[in-house]
Write a sequence for this structure.
């Protein structure tokens, strides 16, 4: 699932922002970011509180200043995690641009502070600053590429390759190097990984235990350490070639 924005260099498996595109969301031109910030209102969320839900009308455009948000959706009784939003990221602009309701939930995983640009102020700014349209068009195009890649992986890659790919992406975004390997600096309960992979917790547990037995990873209190990331990369490449997982 390697995708790049227009005019951006191609990224390797471990460099792709995938579903954690913090660097992309922070690429807003400084002059536009300053204009938006000047129109913003402060908003606070407690851990577990929703910023917006699937099907809700857009109220504004948001910059996360503290905490973390989880973007996800619910199908039947299953919850799926689509992405995480970190401080400095902007989120929520799609419904403002296409006029449709939100297509995902945004929930605070920690106590969070945000800057909210109300819908009307955002629309007025777009009218005054036509250059913003190009920026948001590129963002939407990149988001579409990522979505197509995500669902393509879901359909084409076996679970081991998909899980390995996601762990490498998480390590690229949140990795902390130490003596034991590359520690992913997030709490990753197996149910959360199952939600990301659209599978069962038991299936995730089976794969992780097999990798731990091979010395590829170590598991400690909902934390994962990649001890042999190259083995995971080879697993991804094998899956993409159709060699099995």
């Amino acid at each position: 699932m390697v995708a790049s924005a227009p005019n951006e260099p191609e990224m390797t498996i471990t460099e792709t922002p995938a579903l954690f595109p913090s660097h992309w969301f922070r690429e807003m031109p400084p002059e536009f970011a300053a204009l938006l910030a000047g129109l913003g209102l402060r908003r606070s969320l407690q851990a577990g509180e929703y910023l917006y839900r699937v099907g809700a009308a857009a109220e504004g455009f948001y910059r996360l200043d503290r905490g973390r948000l989880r973007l996800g959706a619910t199908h039947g009784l299953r919850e799926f995690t689509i992405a995480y939003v970190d401080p400095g990221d902007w989120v929520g602009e799609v419904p403002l641009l296409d006029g449709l309701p939100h297509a995902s939930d945004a929930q605070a995983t920690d106590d969070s502070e945000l800057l909210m640009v109300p819908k009307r102020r955002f629309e007025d700014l777009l009218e005054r600053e036509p250059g913003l349209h190009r920026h948001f068009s590129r963002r939407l195009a990149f988001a579409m590429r990522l979505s197509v890649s995500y669902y393509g992986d879901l359909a084409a890659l076996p679970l081991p390759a998909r899980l390995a790919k996601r762990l490498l992406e998480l390590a690229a975004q949140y990795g902390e190097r130490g003596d034991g390997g590359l520690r992913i600096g997030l709490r990753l309960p197996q149910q959360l990984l199952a939600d990301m992979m659209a599978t069962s917790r038991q299936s995730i547990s089976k794969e992780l235990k097999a990798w731990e037995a091979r010395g590829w990873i170590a598991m400690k209190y909902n934390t994962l350490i990649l001890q042999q990331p190259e083995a995971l990369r080879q697993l991804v490449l094998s899956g993409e070639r159709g060699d099995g997982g």
Summary: Residues 53 and 240 are 34 Å apart (CA to CA). Residues 131-156 form the longest helix (26 residues). The two ends are 15 Å apart (CA to CA).
